[in-house]
Specification:
heterodimer; A: 3-stranded mixed β-sheet; 9 strands; B: mainly beta; about 0% helix
Chain lengths: ~130, ~25
């Protein structure tokens, strides 16, 4: 299916934003680790963590957007999202990564690596999805 | 009187794009 319009960057990616984990612990967005997502998903009754591998990165409809194709979970479901260049994804074992890390750092003061094909991102699915 | 400013707290799952695959079958 065609990707939807680019998702605007939400405020919680700004450095210093306070994030509440599933066990109630508060952390700054820049301090989050892979384990925080894994442990929070383990506690969650609704959400299940999945790995999404970046398969393709193409230009989006507008010059500041990209279309990222992911292969999600064991079933390798193909999912396309169109996001702004600076939109950060959390890569397993690596942390925040975006297609334009310089721009992410400039806009949100969030340190980022370059998101590349083959990177495995944290994603979520609903438990008991029918 | 100055009201105390509350700091927004965001849930952890809001940071993760929801990539639940659509079940086509």
């Amino acid at each position: 299916s065609p990707p939807s319009s680019p998702v605007a960057l939400p405020p919680f990616f700004m450095r210093g934003s306070i994030i509440q984990l599933a066990d109630g612990e508060l952390k700054r967005v820049e301090d989050l680790k892979t384990e925080d997502f894994i442990q929070s998903a383990e506690i969650s009754s609704e959400l299940k963590i999945d790995s999404s591998t970046v398969e393709r990165i193409d230009n989006g409809q507008s010059p500041n957007a990209v279309v990222i194709q992911f292969s999600v979970g064991e079933l390798k479901a193909q999912v396309c999202v169109e996001v702004l260049l600076e939109y950060p994804f959390f890569v397993f074992g690596q942390g925040w990564s975006s297609c334009c890390p310089d721009r992410t750092t400039q806009l949100f003061e969030l340190s980022c690596a370059k998101l590349c094909v083959g990177d495995v991102c944290v994603s979520l699915t609903l438990r008991g999805l029918r | 009187n100055v009201e105390p400013r509350s700091v927004p707290v965001f849930p952890w799952h809001s940071l993760v794009p929801f990539l639940a695959p659509t079940q086509s079958d």
